Automatic annotation (TrEMBL), chain A:
<keyword id="KW-0812">Transmembrane</keyword>
<feature type="transmembrane region" description="Helical">
    <location>
        <begin position="272"/>
        <end position="293"/>
    </location>
</feature>
<protein>
    <submittedName>
        <fullName>Ni/Fe-hydrogenase 2 integral membrane subunit HybB</fullName>
    </submittedName>
</protein>
<keyword id="KW-0472">Membrane</keyword>
<keyword id="KW-1133">Transmembrane helix</keyword>
<dbReference type="InterPro" id="IPR005614">
    <property type="entry name" value="NrfD-like"/>
</dbReference>
<feature type="transmembrane region" description="Helical">
    <location>
        <begin position="338"/>
        <end position="359"/>
    </location>
</feature>
<feature type="transmembrane region" description="Helical">
    <location>
        <begin position="226"/>
        <end position="245"/>
    </location>
</feature>
<comment type="similarity">
    <text>Belongs to the NrfD family.</text>
</comment>
Automatic annotation (TrEMBL), chain B:
<dbReference type="InterPro" id="IPR006311">
    <property type="entry name" value="TAT_signal"/>
</dbReference>
<keyword id="KW-0411">Iron-sulfur</keyword>
<dbReference type="GO" id="GO:0046872">
    <property type="term" value="F:metal ion binding"/>
</dbReference>
<dbReference type="InterPro" id="IPR017896">
    <property type="entry name" value="4Fe4S_Fe-S-bd"/>
</dbReference>
<dbReference type="GO" id="GO:0030313">
    <property type="term" value="C:cell envelope"/>
</dbReference>
<keyword id="KW-0004">4Fe-4S</keyword>
<feature type="domain" description="4Fe-4S ferredoxin-type">
    <location>
        <begin position="126"/>
        <end position="155"/>
    </location>
</feature>
<dbReference type="Pfam" id="PF13247">
    <property type="entry name" value="Fer4_11"/>
</dbReference>
<dbReference type="GO" id="GO:0051539">
    <property type="term" value="F:4 iron, 4 sulfur cluster binding"/>
</dbReference>
């Protein structure tokens, strides 16, 4: 680990900045870690497959069909990934709007996670586009399809990425030692947070609303006019469970950067997060129950899709909810972690069910992702983790801000 | 270089029309704001002899390979990236009945509403067309279309969406769609109003030949293609469970809530922020 260096504050010459950046681009620490040994070959294969995808068309690597046009990249990387990135808006709400200062130490890492997630899942979206060179049409072109839910989601995505970048930018300024920029960017945080929460509410629900017109195609147990609300509510505990899960890994991997104070606080934070998870899961289950009764779905339960629905709802929503609630009284870190992992599995199941598994459940030829699609999906996530690690090792995310930057962030 | 008055007004008019056109195009769901009537095609299953001349003519006109697969009763030949239309045979109590299969050209198409670049577009003449230079290949139209009509070229690095466009270029020239021109009597071209009147006339005149129902009159808010049939439509592979309301109506309430959320949520957050601000100054929590 290199100690934080801030050479440009003294001399603001271009040369020094470049030298500094070049130095920072080099990897720090050991090369041959188990994670690297596993991830590098996968990433190389994935990148090769991406080249094939662009030279030979989607069909060369992907199994998507005319009936099921959206496969793993949209269903998993975009629809599922965005739910997990929801932690950023929930946490910024807690810290900046409700001013619960306990969580200040994890807000940066969560925002960084959210930012990278959105960036890379937008990348997955571009991979999936048949004509990605026309992607600017709905952005700058004169072809606004304003009646499209996807148009709305796309715009909210783009703006939210900018918002997250602004929220994270003070850390970049601290890394570069840019004091003036830091002051300006920190002042923009609260605006970006308010903007970001609004955008999140709309695109989290918007991702569900995408499927509203697939009425006859999604199994009635998963389709309802309330998909947008269900997606929004579930994004709360999806994001928080991801924070719990990701935090328990980061604590070990980046243990040298986390000081004692935040370590002891972590237990308290986990407890509060698990309470919010428990409550929001209760709301979610209650909504699901209402939809179930209102839609008279009882007759669908005694079928293979019905059992699958019960697995999702009971096994991966009700059970982790109970675990979260059990940990109210007696804080049990292990219990909370297990509950978080189960919740994460439940969210993956739910999003994949809506977008892939229950989508055209009655089709003669079912869509099953090819190994190449899976490798590309994983590649996207692995590159994201690499960049995450690169940033964590350089910018003040876990480690404290430099002394000149303290007491300034709101 | 000088611009005379006439040219100036022409340019002004064109600009104005573009703006109006943009606004009108912004809501493909509303067809009532202009007086033009949509053209459509009436297909009569009771007359069709299943010769498939329309399939061949369609392929030829649009530069697609001639369809060679055999038609077989009970086997649904789907449209594909090389076939914009198919004719299928069904065994019924009235004998073998044929059904033509292509884009339905809905009055309020789900695909055009789904499209975020207006590449899928409901023209004022009635055909739903696909415009290559606008499409970004997201395939949301395919997710949304209740009839699974748009077909995507997965094997191409520069893919297109293949679907029937009701020979839009020919209609603009005042010609009939090539399938209608090729067909003897089973296909009938006209405005939707004329088609429904004609269909009703046929049902009233030869009640023994038809069931008293026109598929497409109300399904998904009405379609440009209308079907007459001697047997109930569900026996001919039609999805009769599709809702009567248009598909865009499914996303309407969500889209309407967007401006409200965009205004109300930030206001609420600002209020909360202001309310919690004082507390923080008092506690002086440095972190």
């Amino acid at each position: 680990m290199t100690s934080p260096a801030y050479p440009i504050t003294e001399k603001k010459q271009n040369q020094t900045i470049w030298r500094f950046l070049l130095k920072e681009l080099k990897p720090s620490g050991k090369w041959l870690t188990p994670f690297n040994i596993i991830s590098i070959p996968i990433i190389l294969v994935g990148l090769a497959l991406i080249v094939i995808r662009f030279t030979h068309g989607l069909g060369a690597v992907s199994n998507v069909t005319q009936e099921v046009p959206w496969g793993l990249w949209k269903g998993f990387n975009v629809v599922t990934g965005v739910a997990f990135a929801g932690g950023a808006y929930v946490l910024t709400f807690i810290v900046y709007i409700l001013k619960v200062d306990k969580f200040h130490s994890i807000v940066r890492v969560t925002v960084l996670n959210g930012f990278l997630a959105y960036l890379f899942y937008t990348g997955a979206l571009v991979l999936d586009l048949g004509k990605p060179w026309n992607i600017f049409n709905p952005v700058i072109g004169n072809n606004y399809g304003v009646s499209s839910v996807l148009f709305l989601v796309a715009w909210h995505f783009i703006l939210y990425i900018l918002g997250l970048l602004i929220e994270f930018s003070p850390a970049v300024a601290e890394w570069l030692g840019a004091k003036r920029a830091h002051k300006i960017l920190s002042g923009m945080t609260i605006g970006a947070v308010i903007f970001g929460i609004t955008l999140s509410v709309l695109h989290q629900s918007g991702l569900g609303a995408l499927f509203l017109m697939a009425k006859e195609k999604i199994h009635p147990l998963w389709y309802s006019e309330f998909i947008p609300i269900l997606f929004l509510v579930s994004s709360v505990f999806a994001g928080l469970s991801m924070i719990i899960f990701e935090g328990s890994i980061s604590q070990q991997v980046f243990s040298d950067q986390i000081d004692e104070k935040s370590r002891t606080r972590r237990k308290e934070m986990l407890q509060i997060l698990s309470r919010i998870c428990g409550c929001s899961m209760f709301i979610y289950l209650f909504l699901q129950l209402l939809v179930f009764i209102h839609g008279q779905r009882g007759s669908y339960i005694n079928s293979s899709m019905g059992y699958w629905f019960l697995v999702e709802m009971v096994g991966f929503v009700l059970v982790p909810m109970v675990l979260f609630i059990l940990s109210y009284r007696k804080p049990n870190i292990l219990l909370i972690r297990i509950a978080a992992i189960m919740t994460i599995i439940g969210i993956i199941l739910n999003r994949l069910n809506v977008s892939i598994i229950a989508f055209r459940w009655d089709a003669a030829v079912r869509y099953v992702p090819s190994w190449m699609e899976i490798v590309i999906s994983i590649t996207i996530i692995l590159i994201q983790i690499w960049i995450f690690r690169w940033i964590i090792n350089r910018m003040p995310v876990f480690k404290g801000s430099p002394s000149w930057a303290k007491h300034k962030n709101d | 270089m000088s611009i005379n008055r006439r040219d100036f007004f022409k340019a002004l008019g064109a600009t104005g029309m573009t703006i109006i056109g943009l606004n009108a195009a912004g809501s493909p769901g509303s067809n009532s704001d202009d007086d033009t009537e949509f053209y459509g095609i009436l297909y009569d299953s009771s007359i069709c002899i299943g010769c498939r001349a329309c399939e061949k003519a369609c392929a030829e006109t649009h530069g697609l390979p001639e369809p060679e697969d055999e038609m077989e009763a009970g086997v649904q030949r789907k449209t594909s990236v090389t076939q914009r239309c198919t004719v299928n045979a069904f065994d019924t109590e009235e004998g073998e009945v044929y059904v033509r299969n292509q884009c339905m050209h809905c009055n309020e198409p789900a695909c055009a509403t789904a499209c975020l670049t207006q590449a899928m577009y409901k023209t004022k003449e009635g055909p739903v067309i696909w415009r290559e230079e606008k499409c970004m290949g997201c395939r949301y139209c395919m997710v949304s279309c209740p009839f699974d009509v748009p077909k995507f070229e997965y094997e191409s690095a520069n893919p297109i969406i293949q679907k029937c466009d009701m020979c839009y270029d020919r209609i603009k020239e005042g010609e009939l769609p090539v399938c209608v021109e090729t067909c003897g009597d089973a296909l009938y071209f006209g405005t939707r109003r004329e088609l429904i009147a004609e269909a009703r006339r046929r049902i009233a005149e030869w009640p023994e030949m038809y069931i008293d129902s026109i598929y497409g009159e109300h399904t998904v808010g009405g379609t440009g293609y209308l079907y007459l049939s001697p047997v109930p439509h569900n026996e001919l592979g039609f999805d009769i469970k599709l809702q009567k309301e248009s598909y865009p109506s499914l996303t309407k309430s969500f889209l309407y809530s967007v401006p409200a959320v965009d205004v109300l949520v930030p206001s609420l957050l600002l209020g909360l922020h202001a309310a919690t601000k004082n507390k923080q100054n008092k506690t002086e929590n440095h972190d």
